Amino acid sequence: MQVPSIRISALIFTRNEEKQLKSLLEDIKGAVDEIVIIDVCSTDGTIEIAKKYGARIFETKPLGFVGPCRMFGLSKVSHDYVLYLDCDERLNINLKAGLR
User: Fold this and answer.
1) What are the tens digits of pLDDT across the range 30-59?
2) CB contact at 8 A, 28 and 54
3) Where are the chain's structural domains?
């Protein structure tokens, strides 16, 4: 019996994260099937960096706290499995290998 393929969305919340975002996107490249960025009013190069990595980008105003942003983000992902990441996080080798 063939095991069904697992598809994973990375959900990242940003606000002026150009210094951290490229490194994160390099780290998860190939480990996830989709990158969704929820950006809260960035004024730096965050959006341009995300576009270079093929991320789906949704911009929003500040929603007060993280809860509403998470719900908004979940409404934008395409896959059942979601990996929430902050821009200063990286996947260790065991997690990267174990995602699939």
Assistant:
1) 899 999 999 999 999 999 999 999 999 999
2) no
3) 8-90
Task: Annotate 41-93 with DSSP letters as a single string.
Answer: S--SSHHHHHHHTT-EEEEE---SSHHHHHHHHHTT--SSEEEEE-TT----H
Q: Give pTM, 2 decimals.
A: 0.90
What CATH class is the domain 8-90?
alpha beta
Nearest-CA neighbor of 33 among 80, 72, 92?
80
- CA–CA distances in Å: residue 74 to residues 8, 43, 46, 48, 78: 12, 24, 20, 22, 9
- CA–CA gap between residue 7 and residue 63 (Å, rounded): 28
